[in-house]
Fold this sequence. Notes:
Blueprint: E1 2-9, E2 15-22, E3 31-36, E4 41-48
Antiparallel strand pairs: 1-2, 1-4, 3-4
Amino acid sequence: MRDKFILKCGHCGRHNYVRTKNKRTMTSKFAIKKFCPDCVGHHEHKETKISKG
Length: 53
């Protein structure tokens, strides 16, 4: 029931973190303010899909 997803920086667009969520309880997109090592600052990171390639 838990899905993996990637957190993408809203400022530079880099994929920085991988997390999981329960899709039954959290139906909306996940967004959180986290540290981005490329931007060297705290920016909002949003949920994106993991490609199955």
